């Protein structure tokens, strides 16, 4: 045993003497990162707003880190399935999450099936605020939000149905909050993601939908498959100025919401690897073509963050906003 310890010591001594700059650093710090493809987990099916955004980033991040970024879609459970995939993977930086306040904050606070807490994730960098819109199926005789509200009030006996990406998503809570505000009951119909919810609306399965905006909605409106009535944002990028803002409503002008998203890793991921990812995300955010593509999808793009402290500040702001939204609809959190 003594000779084995001595042999280990000699091996370590020869290693450190040959590379004094690395002495004392943990083993992972000496590995090139990344040295293999990365998994970018999207918690919704292909074709939705999250998936579109992730593919725009994935291409740029891949060029920055000189490794393939593989986008993996896990729909269902209002993002729970995707979130669990990230938390079940090693905290080594090779699996990162295209997440939002839905999966990282709302799900663990409201859904008893969520076996994790927001703090199990670390925010690498915020990326954008998505523009949330309300759309109606083509048969509804309303071309403004206020006319739609009037229609809903006239049809109180038969409550209107609305589609979202899933139970306890921000869109679900907004539908509940809007109904409570107007003294109306809306029936929630959860789908496995934005793409199937959109198909449900276009196919007339539901009366309206609350979803993150995508440029494909405009083409569907032109084809007469749905009507875009309002954005819940305060301001919009120039490319989507054609969507009426909630502030134009005379009934609920202050009903403002946006959905913030970013890239997350499992808590405990080595800081140097998080820094590599943050730098690659920052490089993507600084590219005019990436910003242009995101803005065309109705997203307000944030400025890159450079430190973990800056990222943590965003994380805390997201948590505070979500807690306030939950309180505003009279829901209790799992911890309560």
TrEMBL record:
Gene3D superfamilies: Bordetella uptake gene, domain 1, Periplasmic binding protein-like II. Residues 1-23 form the signal peptide. It holds the Pfam family TctC. Keywords: Signal. InterPro entries: BUG, Bug_dom1, TAT_signal. PANTHER family: BLR1237 PROTEIN, TRICARBOXYLATE-BINDING PROTEIN. Belongs to the UPF0065 (bug) family. This is Extra-cytoplasmic solute receptor. It comes from Cupriavidus numazuensis. The lineage of its organism: Bacteria, Pseudomonadati, Pseudomonadota, Betaproteobacteria, Burkholderiales.
